[in-house]
# Entry
Amino acid sequence: MGFSLIPKEVQFFDLFDKQAEIITIAAAHFREMAEKGQFDDANIEKMSDIEHSCDLITHDIIDKLNRCFITPFDREDIYALAHELDDLVDMIYSVAKRMRMYKLNTVNKDMVQFALLIEQSSCALAKALSGLRHSKHHKPILVSCIEINRLENEGDHLRDTVIGSLFDNSTDPIATIKWKETFEGAETCLDICEDVANIIESILVKNS
Amino acid sequence: MGFSLIPKEVQFFDLFDKQAEIITIAAAHFREMAEKGQFDDANIEKMSDIEHSCDLITHDIIDKLNRCFITPFDREDIYALAHELDDLVDMIYSVAKRMRMYKLNTVNKDMVQFALLIEQSSCALAKALSGLRHSKHHKPILVSCIEINRLENEGDHLRDTVIGSLFDNSTDPIATIKWKETFEGAETCLDICEDVANIIESILVKNS
Amino acid sequence: MGFSLIPKEVQFFDLFDKQAEIITIAAAHFREMAEKGQFDDANIEKMSDIEHSCDLITHDIIDKLNRCFITPFDREDIYALAHELDDLVDMIYSVAKRMRMYKLNTVNKDMVQFALLIEQSSCALAKALSGLRHSKHHKPILVSCIEINRLENEGDHLRDTVIGSLFDNSTDPIATIKWKETFEGAETCLDICEDVANIIESILVKNS
# Structure
């Protein structure tokens, strides 16, 4: 029986692909909820299941990492990647839960805009992660990372515009608190995508 | 004269036990304040002393860690444990200070409920930490970690219910801001307990 | 041709000095805005340029770190230092942007006070960083770290006093939300300075 290290290494890439797939599902589901203005029990339940499936894979990655002697790149980078990706799904879920809790069940065009940015960033992130398998081919990975950074900047700008006008026109302090928090939460999702992109870029540099 | 490494290793366990003891004292004091609705100067002063004694032990752990060549488990885990435990006491203290600052000196049954959860989680955490001395006996440590996770979920649910009804019935935006912040702070204490449980679980896996 | 490691090591110190210089410029610019009550487009634009120049140096440090085999002290400490210093400038910029977004263009004596504390802490931090070059001479570095801790405590106290009286006298919930957030953001700048001081202290212990 031969002894091969490569399958062990590839496993991490497969697991990251799974995490990435769950993230894109979470982002698509969030965007649908925003477009329909339906942050109701059934939709939150579905998001909770998505979040739970991401938890399982994250634990699987950490578990394999703790037992594994040889890793495709630095252990701390694998650890950081898995946790940031998990944080991303947690954050999407958390914003959705707040929308329900605050009964914000109207279609809000700004929240739809945030949801679209999160979905685009999640897709770029899935591409970058999948590219890590062939980390010597930097180019397409970097293109995705740059796209993630661009989307985060767009999100920053959107948040400032949206919260600015929220306060300018505020007559209902309670509604202002609710929307401020959920818009900021949505923007935080884009920040986490950028954190992932930064980890990926540092992996590229170390392995170049 | 013999040369023994074991005492040096045990020292860390003793120090974590001390940190855990201070945490349970802080949690008990917080629960008493909540039950009496007395977040007054005298009680905050006492909490400040508790927090300061935790600082001293945290510094002691970090200092010993920086000077020590052999550690009972990974340096970064010892570091992370010490800091998270310190963060927990800081957070309990911080919530108590906000309660005083906002003059929230009535007995609030939801805050009492949070305080009870924090106290239970702190006790479970002290048990788990004390078990690390015999980390080959996973079972009782894992039982405590599972309990900490359960309490965090309960806290999440409590926060959503409590803040949901706070906003549903809100007529006073300023009071809403105050209570929202302190309830969220209380729930963050349970999050930090869970972070500690996660570190402990990863230590178990690495040393299994 | 000789082969020298020392210049490579000194490079990090030079880069940290540059980061420190940018931080003191950012802090001085923030203090000027606060003193004039002018958080306007031109001033925010200038702060954005300062923040961008800090980004470039941070990337440069991380890049050199990833390519470098020999470092003057632990890689993770260099990494943590560079990131915390970058976070500090980001936070100062972020508070300034919020002041503009909320149109808080009056001279507020408490914000001026925070700005002065941030400027003092930034100067102490620049001194401590510059001292790392001669890390065997602990004394002056520790004096700066103690000063940074003292300023953070002062900031904590200021925040509690200021937010306490903000809520005591609140008639306008929207204005209360705005000021609470910006005061807390200003205090977070001092927290980050303290985080940097903690990293510096741990570097000293490890290299003593």
Observations:
- Residues 34 and 112 of chain C are 5 Å apart (CA to CA).
- Residues 6-206 of chain C form a domain with the Methane Monooxygenase Hydroxylase; Chain G, domain 1 fold (CATH 1.20.58.220).
- The first helix of chain C runs from residue 6 to 36.
